[in-house]
Amino acid sequence: MSDKIIIGIPNKGRLQEKTFNLFMKSGLEIIRNHGDREYYGKMDGIDNVDVVFLSPREISMELNAGTIDIGITGLDLIYENIYQADKHVKCLAKLDYGFADVVVAIPISWIDVDSIIDLDDIAFKFRMANKRRLRIATKYPNISREFFSKKGFADYLLVESLGATEGSPAYGSAEAIIDITSTGSTLLANELKTLVDGTILKSESCLFVSVNAKWTVNKKKYLEELFGKISMQINIDKDSQKDFLENLS
Amino acid sequence: MGTKKMIKNTELSTNIDPNNITQYFTDKGFVLIQPNMVIPAETVVNHMGEDIRRRLLVAPSPDGKEYCLRPDFTLPLVLERIKSNKLDTMKYVYDGFAFRFPTSREISRTCPEFRQIGIEDFGSKDSLGTDISVLKNTLNVLDEVNFRDYKLLLGDVSIFYSILDQIKTSASYKDKIKRLFWRGSNDIISNLNNNSHVVINADKSILSKIKNRKDNSANKDLISSIAGFDKLNVFGGRNPEDIINNYIEKKEIIDNQEIDKKIPSMLSEFLSITCPASLALENLTSFAKSYNLDLEQQIESLDRRFKLLNEYRPLLNGVVFQASLGRRIEYYTGLIFEIRSNTIEDLGPIAIGGRYDNFFTDLGSPIRVPAVGCSIYMDRLLMAGGNYV
């Protein structure tokens, strides 16, 4: 097994750009020998760190599996894809980008619904009238269920959506949705509004370490070295870092 | 898996032989049936609640639909009866595995499969007779396997529904009460007092203009124009008219707040009634009297059942009346009972039974088929009775 640290970095888009910049400012340039399409790279300025480019969702799953040691991805994906996430990954720094809220959104036309309790009222009526449950489309079935269960709301059926979730109420594949929003403009364009108490999670990009990865003495040393180099740019929670390193088996 | 004690099906004690239970019922004329093991997941979720979905064993089919292993026997059995249009009288016994991931409170198993033996009595119009017969059979079969360390809890959800009928409040508020009842929320008072369901903060302007409730069509036009319904396309499967009606109902809830204040405490008082069956009649009568409710018919019906049961055989550990029994399971409509271990308090019900007269029609039956059933959880029975000699 390699005695290097493997870090997962988003494989495209603005998140990748921001992440590259963040490391660049710390004097660590992420380099790929074979151009943009390569999924494997290094950091110029530090030894013993390998970079892999993965989708943010894959990063959450590989952190859980322990196949990567650290990774940058959204809190939303961590909580969605990892059961009891806090036991398997630790968030050591919030990165101040990739802001998005996971929210419950309903048609603007539902003037009788402003909160979860209102939604509960009409979901019950809907079920009694239609002999089926109100459908809610989402890419986040796990955190949605947990949220509703905490709120005591049960009269719904989750419909898994793979993309363009906001359009579901318009074309009739669901009555409401749970999705991420940053400015709210996509929701508005699709005639949707959020519930006053329907914010499930305030997400942003974070630096995570995997509890389940194999942490050798060397790797712990490299991790501290890496954190030393980026600490001017990334506000790493020192207590969590200490806790994390001390509690590794 | 966990450290909790798990009863394997091979660890059957000599005095509890599941075959004896099934045999008892077939001897009594119940027909042994093996309902479908795999059923559409959506049907389960629609009729048993999304919460149970977490505990279902679900698998997708190649065409994208979700199927699950049966979480109980009643649902697949009723579905099959409806599908084959067999809506006449029939008595069934089943014996097999049902599948649900255990909750953290479950102490008798850690595996998702659990063995259930149970009976269903479909289509009988003699409601008193079938209620008593299912109860008697359940008690007898426990004798059959020498299990006596239990108490019998009895309730009747029709009392609750009758109270609900007699409460003077809006339909929305009644719906809310029903939901809280089914959810088994202990906090019925604070949940009902919580008026945040009438938020509409942003739209106080509309509400203040709905002055004359009688002039409904004017109100509707007003709301529709303020909400800009003519410019909207997305109504999420709801009729604009319903949205407005519901909106107006919320206004009524605000107006009725004073009246509604008494309701939560009355319901709480009712749901907390737990007493020896011999005192149930008296307690329920005085409850009804103090709130000016007419529960005579329900109390009398319950009393007849108690008497018949007592004449048949007085129980060693007595019969307890528990008003809150039968919450969480929406399909029960009348008598409901639970067999609970007398010694192991944390153990879930060893058997649950009751009447569910609307289940067939809810699942699409063209005619109403009265039904009573009871199911024995074998893992719990073995745990409670494993050491019994």
**How would you name the oligomeric state of the polypeptide chains in this document?**
heterodimer
Q: Biggest protein-protein interface? A: A-B, 42 and 43 residues
Q: Could you estimate the helical fraction of the residues of chain B in percent?
A: 40-55%
Q: Could you spell the SSE succession of chain A in H and E letters?
A: EHEEEHEHEEHEHEHEHEEHH
Q: What spatial order of strands do you see in the largest sheet of chain B? A: 1-5-6-12-11-10-7-9-8
Q: How far is the N terminus from the C terminus of chain A?
A: 17 Å
Biggest β-sheet of chain B, characterized? 9 strands, mixed
CATH level 1 name of the largest domain in chain B:
Alpha Beta
Morphology call of chain A: elongated
- How would you classify the helix and strand content of chain A by structural class? alpha/beta
CATH topology of the largest domain in chain A: D-Maltodextrin-Binding Protein, domain 2
Unreliable stretches of chain B, pLDDT < 50, 5 or more residues?
1-14, 196-202
Strand content of chain B: 15-25%
Task: Round the Cα radius of gyration of chain A to an integer and report it.
Answer: 21 Å
Find the CATH superfamily of the largest domain in chain A. Answer: Periplasmic binding protein-like II
How does this model look, in words?
The complex is a heterodimer of chains A (249) and B (389). By secondary structure, chain A is of the alpha/beta class. Chain A folds into two domains: 5-99 and 205-247, 3-Layer(aba) Sandwich (D-Maltodextrin-Binding Protein, domain 2), CATH 3.40.190.10; 100-203, D-Maltodextrin-Binding Protein, domain 2 (3-Layer(aba) Sandwich), CATH 3.40.190. Chain A contains nine helices and twelve strands. Chain A has helices at 13-25, 56-65, 75-81, 116-130, 141-151, 168-171, 185-189, 217-230, 238-247, and strands at 5-10, 29-31, 40-44, 49-54, 70-74, 89-94, 100-107, 134-138, 156-160, 176-181, 192-203, 205-210. Chain A has a seven-stranded mixed sheet with strand order 2-3-4-1-5-12-6, with helices on both faces. In chain A, strands 9-8-10-7-11 form a five-stranded mixed sheet. Chain A is elongated and about 65 Å long. The model of chain A has no long low-confidence stretch (mean pLDDT 91). By secondary structure, chain B is α+β, with helices and mostly antiparallel strands. Chain B has three domains: 1-149 and 343-389, Bira Bifunctional Protein, Domain 2 (BirA Bifunctional Protein, domain 2, 2-Layer Sandwich); 150-185 and 261-341, BirA Bifunctional Protein, domain 2; 200-255. In chain B, 43% of the residues lie in helices and 17% in strands. Chain B has 16 helices and twelve strands. Chain B has helices spanning 18-27, 41-48, 74-83, 127-144, 157-166, 171-183, 188-193, 204-209, 216-227, 240-255, 257-260, 262-271, 277-290, 296-312, 359-362, 378-385; strands spanning 31-32, 38-40, 58-60, 66-69, 90-99, 113-122, 150-156, 274-276, 319-322, 335-341, 351-355, 371-377. In chain B, the strands form two sheets. In chain B, strands 1-5-6-12-11-10-7-9-8 form a nine-stranded mixed sheet. In chain B, helix 1 (18-27) packs antiparallel against helix 4 (127-144), helix 4 packs parallel to helix 14 (296-312) and helix 9 (216-227) packs across helix 10 (240-255). The two termini of chain B are 30 Å apart. The chains are: A alpha/beta (249), B alpha+beta (389). The interface between A and B is large, with 42 and 43 residues.
